[in-house]
Specification:
The chain has 484 residues and is of the alpha/beta class. The chain folds into two domains: 14-211, P-loop containing nucleotide triphosphate hydrolases (Rossmann fold); 275-467, Nucleotidyltransferase, domain 5 (2-Layer Sandwich), CATH 3.30.420. It is built from 13 helices and 19 strands.
Amino acid sequence: MGVTHRYIFNPPGPTLRAFYYDRSPVSIITGPLGSAKTTTVCYRQLEMMKEQAPNRHGIRPTRSIAIRNTYGELLSTTAKDFTTIFEPLGVFKQGGKEPPSFRMRFKLKDGTVVDHEMWFIALDRPQHVKKLRGHQVTWFWLSEVKELPKDVIDMADYRHGRFPSMQLGEVLPTYSCMLGDTNQCDEDHWLYDFQEIQKPAGELPDWEFFVQPGGVIKRSGKWVLNELAENLVNLPAGYYDKRIQGKRESWIKVNLGNQYGFVMDGKPVHPEYSDAVHCVDNMDYLPNETIVLGFDFGRTPACAILQMIGGSWYCLDEFVSVNMSAAKFAPHLLKYLNRNYPGAGFIGWGDPAGAHPGEVVEHSAIETLQANGVPCEPCETQDVLQRRAAVSNPLTELGMNGKPRLMICKKAKTIRKGLAGKFCYRRLQVAGDEKYMDVPDKNAWSHPVEALEYGLMGEGEGLEMVLDQNEKNNTYEERKSSVY
């Protein structure tokens, strides 16, 4: 007589329960660490295997692919979690040309046999989409959805529901889908757009999103245990509220609070910035006051749009680009300024390197802006200390209005995100104490923030850093000469 295995699963929370029984074409659950997301996804797939209609041979055939961004995480977490739960029901295979797989075959009480094969494939770049071509599966498990490129999701959506087929035992998939689990994403992520904008607008009728309560919640400025958190019964005492000690605010917010945001993996270039202090709602510009434009050049030109209002600098807006020459950037920027800031007067400051033509262009970036009617002059220096101080100093000083001398409007979302930590010194992957690169990463956030630096530096911000440094140098020279 064969061995009987009983699997009974009661989702430990109302959100988990709703996700477990959902059968939408796409369903994604977001939740904090320890909230039983992965376990629920695993057991839901077991139910889906059992729900598949049998073919004429009494076999319930299904096939799935579990996707994660890297093979390391795929095998150490996703595959390990699934195979640990269902180890008695299947065999894990790894090695050779085929991706790792877990083959499950077991008999139900009604005499039919569940036959399921799960493949584990890592896909973290848009160009990896081709790995999905040719696969015929019943469903996809999108593990840590926020780490997956949208191109991968798009292709996966057209590869499920293709197994089993009428050619294989005269049966079709009873239910096919994409189901995913993840910690909360950032506000500029495609998943945020789907959850908060497109779904409420009725544009994604086949997509369902399930958002668990955070493990902690903020009350009176402090993170405390959220009594509505799910799966508490299966967690050690103090799992959420006691272990937050020593954790970064951004880490707690995303991983425990289940709130939108990003977790810094580097040292911010401008640690003085606090989103809670320096970010404000969008403001109208003053048509009778000059608007300052700050520029950073290269193949990703960026423009920061600022104005002095009530004694403080307000970064009202930004205009960013990707892989665009100055010749294309300038007319697009001019059109944007005319449309959004009619009647305003402008002054511009840019990276002095932009005053020199490149090897393959006749005119410099600054000359190109000027030729298109966009004012811009080169700053006097590229001095890094002065540039950084041009932003850091007004972030830490109060203006006549009692507010910090630099405020960032929500409309300048790339600059805001860059200041919050995306513009950073990358952490080195070494043992021991945390170590970082000597220069910041060049990325989508660095260019707009450096445009902000140049705009403020052109208006005289950060000059005191140079004066202080000169004073220190002069004092040193005086002391050195007095020795002799």
